[in-house]
Amino acid sequence: MDLNSSHDLNERIDSFLRKRRENGSFRQLRTSESSDETLDLSNNDYLCLAKHPLVCQAACRAIEEDGCSSSASPLLTGYRPSHAALVETICAWFGTSRNQVMLWNTGYSANQSIFTILPQKNDLVLADRMIHQSMIAGILSSGARLIRYPHLDMQRLESLLVRYSGQRTVYVATESVFGMDGDYPDLGKISRLREKFRFFWILDEAHALGWYGQKGTGLAEEQGVLDAVDLFLGTMGKALGSSGAFTIFKNPQLKDYMVNVAGHFIYSTFLPPSAALAAKQAIELLAGWKRERKEWQDQSNCMRTKLNHLGHSCGTGDSPVIPIFFNSLDDLAIAKEKLENSRMRVSAIRHPTVPVHSPRIRISMRSDLNGEDLAGKIHEGLE
Ligand SMILES: Cc1ncc(COP(=O)(O)O)c(C=O)c1O
User: Fold this and answer.
1) CA nearest to 164, candidates 120, 124, 122, 119
2) I need a labelling partner for 10 at 20 to 30 A (CA). Which of 191, 262, 275, 353 fits?
3) For strand 321-325 and strand 344-345, is the pairing parallel, antiparallel, or unpaired?
4) Nearest CA to ligand 1 atom 8
5) Which atom in ligand 1 lies closest to the alpha carbon of residue 104?
6) Domain 290-382 carries which CATH code?
7) Regions of the chain where pLDDT drops below 70
8) What is the residue with the minimal CA distance to atom 7 of ligand 1?
9) pLDDT digit string (tens) for 12-31?
């Protein structure tokens, strides 16, 4: 063993961790226990489906019939009837065909694979500055050029398209609802830009699935532009109350391509059957909810309005993700502690997950909560 290099490594790691501790961005694992007395506003179970009796029963049935694991990667024997059944349900939900839909173990691995594999060395990816780290990680390892446009800035996106279109293959990547900001771009505008500039549009609907659209398939459905999306990503560990992810490819050949080359898919034990059947059951439930979606959006809107009115800073909107911004890390830490003392579990989000100047408490709105009451409770907790 080369003692010198091991010594360097220790020093490097030590210095990194010390800096993180000093600037308040040190990350630590904590066990989160479920408690009936604490209101959990920190997870992404927006529609309360993770503990829905029918969803739990579907998972239990899958375990009884098929065991706790798929026990193999999907191209060997891990792709089971429960996975095929979930794909059929997604096809019926979105009105697509089975050769366009692909399941993944996580949204992270789906994004990382897609962005590593599709863009190539001389291509260009135009991405919203705030996209999820899984997409950034993929783009950076693809070798393609990445230009990040300011958050939600459609004018800037258009000027980049004017400048670069026609010279190389261009991809545009965005989330619909942004996971840390709760806002979203004008998808209609992106669709019109796509018509004009012919780029490849990748849309991550992780935080919009279930919450928007007549059928609950997300914001692209709600804004009438689903047909323009080249690659759609939905995750199953958030509103669907399960785990894993799916992608829908406008061009079915891209699915065949990913199945042939995506290492995260080919060389990893596949999603457990219980996760597939839980997600299938969740989709069947939420696809039937129509009026409710508008009510949840109204509650979210109402919560922001009231919080802003009470002197907090949380922007406007109707998505399930509600940030409350603070001026300093000290204020953030105090707010988190106060809310926890008032029996509300929340996440404190700091740099590098969000820009250094905008630390925030991230609140997940849930379908079982009243926006006005919740805003009052949070305000009292923060007093
Ligand atoms: C926008 C977005 N995409 C992808 C992911 C990753 O999904 P998963 O949790 O299934 O890995 C997340 C996770 O938080 C996310 O917020």
Assistant:
1) 124
2) 353
3) unpaired
4) 107
5) 10
6) 3.90.1150.10
7) 1-5
8) 107
9) 999 999 999 998 788 889 88
